[in-house]
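Data deposition worksheet. Section B asks for the primary sequence of the deposited chain exactly as it was used as input, without tags or linkers unless they were present during the calculation. Section C holds the resulting structure in token form. Section D is free text for depositor observations; keep each observation to a single sentence. Incomplete worksheets are returned to the depositor.
Section A, Depositor: J.P.
Section B:
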Amino acid sequence: MAYPQLTKKPGALETAAAIRRGEMSPYEAVEAAIARIEHLDAHVNAVVVPDFDRALDRARAMDASHIADSQPLFGVPMTIKESFDIAGLPTCWGHEQFADNIATRDARVVRQLKKAGAVILGKTNVPPDLADWQSANPVYGRTNNPHNHSRSPGGSSGGSAAAVASGMVPCDFGTDIGGSVRVPAHFCGIWGHKASWGLVSKQGHDHPAMAGNDAHDGALSIAGPLARNAADVRMLLQLTATLPLRATAKPLAECRMLALLDHPVCPTDAAVRGPIEAALSALEAAGIAIDRASTLLPDLEAQHGDYMRMLNVAMARGAPAPDGKRASATDWFDMLDQQARNELAWVALFEDYDFVLAPPAPVLAVPHREGRVFDGTIAIDGSKQPGAAALCWAGLATYPNLPSTVLPVGESGDLPCGLQVISRRWADLDCIAAAEAIGRILHG
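Section C:
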């Protein structure tokens, strides 16, 4: 089963291994990545804050040093989402009034990646406030999907996914509250991981209006990696996790899975349903047990409503809604109580199932448009649906704080299609391992 690929460039660990074998130096690896960006980005516009001179200086210094076994990404060039602070570079979240907001220190994830030997070439594009499935803003312009330039690469980590999918860099790091890692991975045909909430620190990932104040990580929101293979996703997560991670190493053939392709809030387009159904059939042919329904599922319509209420309050940090109403402290505690009850329902489900398989979004890469996807409508099998309803599949894992790995499973026309693999909280490595095993069955 094929899916569209734009590049055969090596991944992060492959690049590190080549450097370690002496086949290239860190400087040569970085120089080659910069050349790819300069060649490809004129049409994609993914790397909007380049930091090439400092990257070359860092790589040159690495050439003169000894490779440390403790640096698994020694000399590997990569980029990171614009919303993460890097000392000396702007962090504006797509807002013109913050275009001159220069970070004075690195975000924790940036420090962790640098400590592992990565060389960060710059920052990738986002929508304003990280609040759209497009990556377009008045400061940096619009990012195109590498597969089809008339389509979005997703958001809010759309620049990240576009840079990885096109072969500019082997990996990137993004954030996700409404599918902002998973949807770009799905739209661009790469791998992405939504970590369990609280697993990866978001220190230094603050809205520029609060720059340097070390704001709370925020309800629902996580940081997670994007790459072109499972091994790189696993390594990036292990390098940035704040808690020890364990894997069960349970063979896929012994796992019980629940597949969900229908959601009561929003239909699933045939262009998404087709590749996922084909993938499920291939898994069943390989002997994998997959149920299509379960009485253990929480009320998904109610879950989506609770998720959207919490999402909107969290994104606005309690500011008044468009109707002028402001959530009270009592409202917020009620939301936390409801979220806790939902988490327990998923705990009960995962006593019977190892993984839930679902679409990352009900559509493939959406056409460019003015205004946010969530404020308009989306076309699903020829009918118009509310754009905000498309968040239903993102909220499936976000609201109960669960991990989810997205892998590419097929294509419709020139657009790739992904699948998210969800499991119990803190089972992040199991999600990645299951997705890797699924990928082997589907793609060899």
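Section D:
The two ends are 9 Å apart (CA to CA).
The longest strand covers residues 404-412.
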